Amino acid sequence: MVRLHLGCGHLFLPGRINIDSHCLAVADLKASCLSLPLAEQSVTSIEAYHVIEHLGYVGACYALAEWYACLVPNGKLIIETPDLIASLQALLRCQDDESAGAALNWIFGHETPGWNHLMLFTPELLQRQMSECGFADIRLLEPRTHLYGPGFRLEARREGHPVHRVLARVRHRIEVQGLRPANQLAALELEREFLAGWLRLCDLCPEDETENILSALTVSAPLTQLALEEAQNLGLTLCHPERWLKTCETLVGIGFQDLLWRHALSGAVVRDEATIEDAWSATRKRGLELARRVAADPSCAAAQAARLLPNDGCESQRSPPQLFLRQHLAQVALEWSSRGIRHLLDGQDGQPLLERAAAIGLDSYYAVWNLAVLATRRNDLPRAIHFYESLLGLGSPGSEQQVRLELAACYLHLGRPDRAAALAHGEQDPVSGLLLRPLHEVRLRTRPVLHGEGYSAPPND
Questions:
Q1: Does residue 317 contact residue 332 with C-beta atoms inside 8 Å?
Q2: Do 188 and 151 share a structural domain?
Q3: Do 394 and 446 lie in a common domain?
Q4: 235 alpha carbon, distance to own chain's centre
Q5: What per-residue confidence (pLDDT) applies to 429?
Q6: Domain boundary residue, one of 131, 160, 189
Q7: Please, where are the H alpha helices in 206-255?
Q8: Does any domain span residue 313?
Q9: Residue 15's pLDDT band (boundaries 50, 70, 90)?
Q10: Neighbours of 124 (CB within 10 A)
Q11: pLDDT at 248
Q12: Is residue 144 part of a domain?
């Protein structure tokens, strides 16, 4: 009978294997509770006292999956952790600095590496996570350790549904291969779009098998292949397992996720789609159609990929690209924006990068606007003009009007009333195609900007 005590710290419990990854004073084994060096179904009970708050929400999902995999059927899991709401209420009741400090330490943990808290849970939230990872008969009890702060205890047993074993194995592979996104929003997206989809698939909606598997394929063909293989090994009933495995093999062979990336970042998509969500959705829709056609006829994969997912030769930005997530697309847009702003600061042409970032929804517009305002305040008007002109045509009508007004003020100050007039509204300028106003009106409207009175926060359209 193997019993584990995870995150033991300085507390040695006889009769258990005491495990910790940081504090080794009494530990029998140094290991991460996210990747235990133990065989599946080899442990009869796991105790984790004040561990899960150090892992965060996504980390808790992976830890629960790992513990599920290690436990024997009907094996016991015991968790104790601070209670989020009760801990905050205790903090609000504090009357002096000492008690407030203790309450804050209870909520946030220590700053020592490995001792900080990433997230506190409510009993309801943690119970739901445990249930989704395959634990049943979950009981909420009073804690028996760490009694100097408000907490709760959950006891549960491991159920044996094959879908939870599949998810546990997939999560284990994601963890040990370093595929879990470092970005929190991307990690949550992987949970929602891929892993939760398997629960829907195997649970309860066999009629949705096709759409759920196609959706999983667009997120990750390699992970879908792994999940299908594990499902087959564990006897999970699917309608067309061989067809789906062949589809996965074919899509992995043509670099499906890399093709999705290249298409999403290509000039055509960036030009035609207004936001990151639009670019991701448009690409995903094409990816779903490609996967559907490959499922019907694997021999058509290369030809259909060239037709449905064309690209302009841009880099996929991920190596190797095993995941296609909208949050990763947002990260690339942020990189474009940062590089574009850096080019502007270096006196180079950063507008193409900023346009691509803005075209798929990242707002670098206001960052560059602030650079223009800063340059104006430093009386570096040529550089301010460089920044302002890089913004023309990128903003909403209200923002565009204000940018033109401030740019006109810069030109007036440099003795270029003709250019200033061309930036305001009025008569049609045959050269620039802009509408003109009489010069005296331009001077009147831009005078506050010239005197430093017009640099309020950019309007939020």
A1: yes
A2: no
A3: yes
A4: 33
A5: 40
A6: 160
A7: 209-219, 221-233, 241-253
A8: yes
A9: very high
A10: 10
A11: 94
A12: yes
Same domain, 194 and 312: yes
- CATH number for the domain that contains residue 434: 1.25.40
Residue 403: the pLDDT is 87
Mean pLDDT score of the chain: 83
Q: Indicate whether 430 pLDDT > 50.
A: no
Q: Is 191 in the same domain as 149?
A: no
Query: Which residues, 6+ apart, have CB-to-CB distance to 232 below 8 Å?
Result: 238, 241, 245
229 or 425, which is more confident: 229
Pick from 186, 9, 35, 4: which is nearest to 109 by CA? 9
Structure confidence at residue 461 (pLDDT):
41
**Distance between CA atoms of 149 and 171, rounded to whole angstroms?**
32
Domain boundary among 289, 322, 355: 322
Q: Which residues share a beta bridge with 17?
A: 4
pLDDT tens digits, 76-125: 999 999 999 999 999 999 999 999 999 999 999 988 888 899 999 999 99
- Does residue 346 lie within any of the structural domains? no
Write down the pLDDT at residue 183.
86
Q: Are residues 195 and 140 in the same domain?
A: no
Task: Give the whole-angstrom CA distance, residue 2 versus residue 160.
Answer: 19
How far is it, in rounded angstroms, from Cα 98 to Cα 95? 9
CA-to-CA dists, residue 259 to 100, 106, 108, angstroms: 54, 47, 42
**CB atoms near residue 305 (< 10 Å):** 23
- CATH code at position 64: 3.40.50.150
Asked if residue 349 is part of any domain, the answer here is: no
- Considering the domain architecture, whether residues 314 and 375 belong to the same structural domain is answered as no
Number of domains in the chain: 3
Q: Which residues lie closer than 8 Å to 9 by C-beta, 6 or more apart?
A: 20, 23, 25, 26
Task: For residues 80 and 133, state if they share a domain.
Answer: yes
Neighbours of 286 (CB within 10 A): 22
pLDDT digits (tens, 9 = 90+) for 348-365: 877 777 766 766 655 667
Rounded CA separation 136/205 (Å): 21
- Structural domain for 7, as ranges: 3-160
How far apart CA 311 and CA 121 sit, in angstroms, is 44
Give dist(CA 277, CA 329) in Å, integer: 9
Cα torsion angle, 209, 210, 212, 213, sign: positive
Q: Which two tokens stand for residue 218?
A: 């667009």
Whether residue 120 is found in the same domain as residue 21:
yes
Site of tokens 């019907």: 296
Please spell the DSSP secondary structure of 353-377, one letter per residue.
Answer: HHHHHHHTT---HHHHHHHHHHHHH
Q: Is the pLDDT of residue 158 over 60?
A: yes
Closest-CA residue to 48 (of 145, 186, 137, 157): 145
